[in-house]
Amino acid sequence: MPNQPAGSGHRAAPVHTDPAEVSVLEALSAVADPVRLQLVRELAGSEDWTRSCGSFDVPVGKAALSHHFSVLRGVGLVEQRDMGAKRVNRLRREEFEARFPGLLHLLLRADDA
Amino acid sequence: MPNQPAGSGHRAAPVHTDPAEVSVLEALSAVADPVRLQLVRELAGSEDWTRSCGSFDVPVGKAALSHHFSVLRGVGLVEQRDMGAKRVNRLRREEFEARFPGLLHLLLRADDA
C-alpha cells in the first residue's frame, strides 16, 4: 500500500452495511448458522467494544471466524473497529431492530428447544 | 405395505412437527432459503387447503419441491393433507406465531430490500 504510515495496521478497515439495505432473506441467512448465532448471543451479553474477535468461545479457526464476522457485518448486525492489534465488536441493536423488528429478540431468547 | 386397502394412496401420509418443539436455529434455517420463502409467501396469500404442491410458481423440480415442503413441515410452518391425487397445504399461522412471535410477519412483509 503506497503512502501508508509506518506502524499503521496492515489490515483494511472493516466495511459495514446499513441494515436498511439488507433483505429479509439476507438477514435470515446470516443468522441461520450455529456459530454466528453463538457469536451474536455472546456479543449481546457484553458491553459494546469490549469483545475482541478472538475472545469468543466458538469451535472454528481464525479464517472461518473472520468469515463469520464478515457475514454479520454484511447484514448490519455487528460493527467492528480496530484497536491496536485487536478488532473489537459491538451489536447494532437499535439499527437492526428498526429494520427487522423482533428478530434480534428471537435470536437472544433463552427458551430454545 | 400389508393390509392396505385397494385404491388407497401409495404415499405415506405427511409427518408433522409441533412448532413448540422447534428451535430458533431450525426455524431460521428452514426459512432462510429463497424457494421456501416464496412458498410461504404464496401460501400466505391463499385460502387454507386450496393450494396443491404443484400449484406454486417456483423454479425447482418435483423432488426438490417435495424436499422444500418437507423442511417447512419439519419446523411446523406448513401442514399438508392428501386429497385424492393431490397434496394440499395450509400455513400454520397461529401455531408458528405462538412459538416465534413476529417471524412470520417479517417473512411476509413487502418492503424487502
From TrEMBL, chains A, B:
Classification via Pfam families: HTH_5 (PF01022)
InterPro entries: ArsR-like_HTH (IPR011991), HTH_ArsR_DNA-bd_dom (IPR001845), WH-like_DNA-bd_sf (IPR036388), WH_DNA-bd_sf (IPR036390)
Domain HTH arsR-type: 16-111
Name the record gives this protein: Helix-turn-helix transcriptional regulator
Protein source organism: Streptomyces poriferorum
